[in-house]
Amino acid sequence: MHPGWGGGEIARWFAIATSPSPLPGCVAFPEIPGVSLVPRSTPGYCLAAPPGQSGEYALERGLVMDWSSFKPKEKKAYEKALAKIEQCRKDGREGLDLIAMALTQLPPEIGKLTALTELSLDGNQLTQLPPEIGKLTALTELWLSGNQLTQLPPEIGKLTALTELWLDGNQLTQLPPAIGKLTALTRLWLDSNQLTQLPPEIGKLTALTELFLTGNQLTQLPPEIGKLTALTRLRLDSNLALGLPRDIVEMTNPAAILRFYFKTQQAARPLNEVKLVLCGRGATGKTSLVDRLLRNTFDPTKPETTGIALEDWTMKCGQGDITAHVWDFAGQVITHSMHQFFFSTRTVYVLVLTGREDKAEEDAEYWLKLIAAFGSEEGKGPPVIVALNKWDSTQVRVDRGYLRERYPFITGFVETDCATGRGIPDMQRTLHSVVDTMPWVRMPFPKAWWGVKEALAQWPKPTMGYDEYLALCAQHDVTGGDAESLATVLHCLGLALNYRNDARLRDSTVLKPAWLTGHVYDLIREAQKRAGTLARSDLAALLPDVDTAHMREFLLMAMERFDLAYPVEDSAKWLVPLGLPDTQPQEASTFKDERDATRLRYRYTAMPEGLVPRFIVRVHPLIEGERRWASGVILAREGARALVRAAKQDKQVEVTVTGPAEARQALAGLCLAEMRAIHNDIPGLNPAEETEMAGEWVKLSTVERNEALRQKTVVETATKRIELDPTAELNEYTAEAARDDSWKPRLFLSYSHADERYRKRLDIELKVLANLGLIAAAWHDRKIQPGEKWDDEIKRELNEADVIILLVSSNALASHYIDTVEMKRAIERANAGEAEIIPIVVEPCLWTKGPLGKFQGLPRDNISVMQTRPQKLAWAAIAVALHEKLQKLRERRGK
Description:
This protein is of the alpha/beta class.
């Protein structure tokens, strides 16, 4: 077709001539013999066709457009697309961008671009694709996100060179069997469609590594999907009819997800378990309420809970008995940092309020917001019953209707008093009713795994070795991949914790989560008494019931893993920021009046305790001297300084960064990255992330969107309206290269876990390099998620990396795995010209005598990081050298 076809005075924008032969001056139309385009005296053409050929026939064959069905905007978009297609054909380009053009139809002329390898059609309004799409047999990437497609044409199966197909955000109800012909596909995105099932042919896509199906209406999975053994990512969120709990669908091991699904389809029995958490401030009577509910007893002299108490309760529900794992934890502020351990989905909450101090309304808002942040699933908060406790002594005044409106997941309010027994039967009935209707309480659990689960519950100790776990599984005929999958499922359900991706923790399985949380809580309280410091030599006295040094070390490693502590003074002592004094140093006040500063803030509807302490743990190598306190820290790097502190009364965290522009960008970008990483651990927290522009606060997401749309950011000040460049503001945090889609090297980090502190220090510099756009990502084995096969994952990342950094030490050189797998493969790829090797020597060792000796190491002159005083000089030199090497690599390979 041609944008000039048709004429304004011709009905339906075309004319059919009945002359048996073309008129003089006509242009033959090659698609159908006898059909010609005839020039008119006015702009445009009319169609000449043999007798008997109708206009309807021409429309059906796509020879002309029926412009009467097009709105002016749609016609303009179609003509613009047609022009871009023609220009692409003339230029011989391999890529075509037709993004967000408001297209309702894709011109069939697209089929002429037979050399096209990439086609982007995101953000249009296409309801179907023309059959001519099948002529694009050279296509490797096809982007169709955010359209209105209801089906795919069979011709899609002809695109056998496709490696990536993006169909998320459409209206697809089914996939054609022809999808199975796309055997080269590695990535298939089908999120947010209307799919109810997948065709068996999906099993033919054996090259597929990523399959995204979030937000569909799948009722079942075909057995053939199990043939997709190359999958590394599988997303099945928001397909409620599949019956998979969020803990399972969020696992990162596709094989484990599918194994669980198909085992529950074959033979399963209900789990019949629920976690019941009592929360609220201290002295509200949570422990007394537990005593009344479980035993109908009351002891007015019982001391307040100083840690975390856990016991089981058999609830006599209508559909059968349910075992409730009842968690009662201390209400002191310091324990709020422990939310990450036990606030979760698949939980029923009892919020206990009292009328004392007139703080019931404030307490209710705080706790309900936290529960929504930590425990929401599928956009819905978990069930909460509000106990208005100690009612007979002081009635609790809260606006029940208002709270229900704001937090619709509240299932009821019950007036209770443990001293008199008021409301206890009502609370029991309410709990039974709520628990009985929760679908995940009776989640199907594979029968083959029940024997292992019950044996673990009877294990006499709170922990067991992973080898012991495997032996126990073998006794119950659960072996190989099933044993690993079961370990992952038990971890995700909170029934037995095993951190398989952490070499320091993977050999021990925690069978009683309260053992872990209770002892960590005790250590935090002890650190509070000792100005935030714990000495390794004191652990035996502090943990008298933990009978081995290995398990005491396990607890310290767990605290480090969850950003609760970090080692100082060569690991002889540990710093626990939650235990630090509250008073900020005088230097913090000097940041207030800094003019040339980058400012960032986070506003929370409810701010959990421990956000800034977690931040301190993550960035502790950059702390300026000892300027850290319970709610803040001052950082320093290459002449830039940053103040990060919590303003508790305002429910916000403030970040102020000063110094030279380049150094300020690096430090501000690092602060931004670390805060986002912390927030990502709490999906429902959703703070308002704002940056200061022209003295006003603007949402950073607005600035990022404006840059993507290439439009100005409007700032309303008290006196005027200002239009600012969003790119300039974002450059305060990251370089433009970090935000574009140009090629960036992938980096693999090899190290001994004995050198964890060096890995963490290097990780800070690697994040800065990522913010400069010099690397796409820095991968190390801490990025392996629960359930992933760590050996397979390491080898895959090692083979895909462009740059391989090896932290060299005696421990690393002595590691059999590093020597025979990581170092061997790294050197092979370097010798083949496939990757760059950069050794970083962290401790004195004879590394130059081995195969690594021919590679240039850092720091220069064979002086290790450990030998450099102060060590920050070594890391500064390493950062500069890495910057130079990666810049040259990008220039050489990114063209």
